[in-house]
Description:
Blueprint (H helix, E strand, L loop, with lengths): L2 E7 L6 H16 L5 H4 L3 E7 L14 E8 L5 H19 L8 E8 L4 E3 L2 E3 L1 H16 L7
Parallel strand pairs: 1-2, 3-4
Antiparallel strand pairs: 1-3, 5-6
Helix pairs in contact: 1-3
Amino acid sequence: MPMIDVYATAGTFADPHQLAADLAAAVMTIEQVPDIPMFRQNTAAFIHDLPAGSLANVDGDSNYVRIQVLTNAGALDRGKQLAVVEQLTRIAADAAGDPRLASRTWVLLTEAPDGGWGLDGHANTNEELVAAARAQIASLQAGQPSAE
């Protein structure tokens, strides 16, 4: 259930809402989590428009994008890390209409420690998240509405 934060100068993306949905869907797919409400409703991206002049590298260039992906510990093995960075970079460049943006997109992968993933007012361990997902899958398979 990753949280994705994208930081870019205002106006970089024509449709920030679609970008957020595309990024969230990509990470959920790469993680290979079940397509259940628990994951669909708690995998999200936040697009942060920065005012002009609030971003610069050493040379003063400000046409960069920073994407930070926060997952629970151990969610991304090396193959998934590579896929997340490649796909999110491509999605951002496509959303900006600028293929050259790929070379100016930074992707940071961060893991929340076990017990450091808060949801519904509770700091969940990985084991608790897995148990909750299994319970929702069982409920859906039994034809019962999921507790959301």
